[in-house]
Amino acid sequence: xxxxxxxxxxxxxxxxxxxxxDPAQASLFALTVDASRHNLFSWSEWxxxxxxxxxxxxxxxxxxxxxxxxxxxxxSLLAEKSDIGNAQVAEMAEHWRRSYxxxxxxxxxxxxxxxxxxxxxxxxxxxxxxxxxxPAAEPVFVxxxxxx
Length: 148
Description:
Blueprint (H helix, E strand, L loop, with lengths): L11 H6 L5 H15 L5 H14 L6 H19 L4 H17 L7 E2 L29 E2 L6
Parallel strand pairs: 1-2
Helix pairs in contact: 2-4, 3-4
């Protein structure tokens, strides 16, 4: 792997000190690194954009705020740099949301593209809902043969 500066350690630096509280956070980090390695954007471009978005975010950021800003930054860069449009990104995010709400607590989330739209799915278990009333995105597993 080569970066724009030719330094292969640019990706591993964060791994030496960063830990993740949730598998979704690690997945988001891995997706970002992979997108940069595949030249969808440079690592320095990622860093500049993410830093700008962090600075524009809430004053006292929580870890959830940090990773929500990370996800929003990745989504916007991918939408700008790839053939994927904002509508497609929003549609996939909605599929993840539906899959998250349909997954029993403690089970890996399986991406299912055939779930019907719903405002909220009620289960006998608890999902963590945040300030805006929407669940945090927690994709951890994709199963193309999902069961409805």
